[in-house]
Amino acid sequence: MTGTDRSPPAAHPHLQASGIGSQTGFMLRAAQAAVWADLTAALAPFGLRPAHYAALSIVRASPGCRQQEIGDALGMQRPNLVTLVEGLRSRGLLRAARNPADRRSYALRLTADGTRLLAAADRAHDAHRARLATALAPLDEAVLGAALRRLTALAPD
Amino acid sequence: MTGTDRSPPAAHPHLQASGIGSQTGFMLRAAQAAVWADLTAALAPFGLRPAHYAALSIVRASPGCRQQEIGDALGMQRPNLVTLVEGLRSRGLLRAARNPADRRSYALRLTADGTRLLAAADRAHDAHRARLATALAPLDEAVLGAALRRLTALAPD
DNA sequence: TATTGTTATACTCTATAACTATA
DNA sequence: TATAGTTATAGAGTATAACAATA
Description:
The structure is a homodimer. The first copy, chain A, contains seven helices and two strands, in the order H-H-H-H-H-E-E-H-H. By secondary structure, the first copy, chain A, is mostly helical.
């Protein structure tokens, strides 16, 4: 998504007149930008961006996983993982040990610092989720989730 | 969103284990990417990208509008509109006449070619919308739209 | 002084191709 | 030959600062 903290399109007369503002694709884009900005702001105090937080969460859930498994999970290309993982490694949040069984790959694990920082970030993330749940009510989060998954399935491959 | 045709994160074991894949922010991101890719593919035969299509739709709905009004409607910065409008103008889809009342701004209108191309693109866009509606059912498009608007309202400013 | 459009520029995210070292 | 990680690079999209013309 998008990169920085851009504000989403506000309800604007011209947007309304054109009908663009009430079309699912554009509404989805605006909502995604707003939610991403909220998540980005929630994680910023920890020096983490959404991709960092997701990567640490994946390593915590799957200790010893390869770098590429993060990419598969997040839909990122391999070259773009290098900077992401290196950033976390250089901050001492992650360690990458050569896998003895297959010395091409690394086995990724959280360090103690990484575990602590991620636990603190989890609390900010929980607050973010609560804001989303409040904004969504009365539509249930799970109902929205199911709909989003069906939309995601539209994509080829 | 993203730029090109990237495929969204597939349901992946590590994604599932981490819980990231069932969190609204990340689901929203994946769904948005898939929907955007579908829209991009639908508009590609016309040489239009989503921003082009949205800009033309706004000009059609608001003939004589200023360039900046497109930016306000779409949440784009002024400098980034120059390339967008110039591209449409150089293809003869849009014309920009100096506004006699305020000679700082241009009055944008569709050309006959622009009107025709946009009408053709509308049909591809309708097909895209139908695919979304099918994927969403039984959740109503309007119910999702209302939820997305509430999420969009999370953003500051 | 403020606004419209413009130029120049930079940063982020994402994409492909080609390399290395291992298998 | 195939895979994991890496390097270099390019393309979108978006951001800010500063300028000219006009109000």
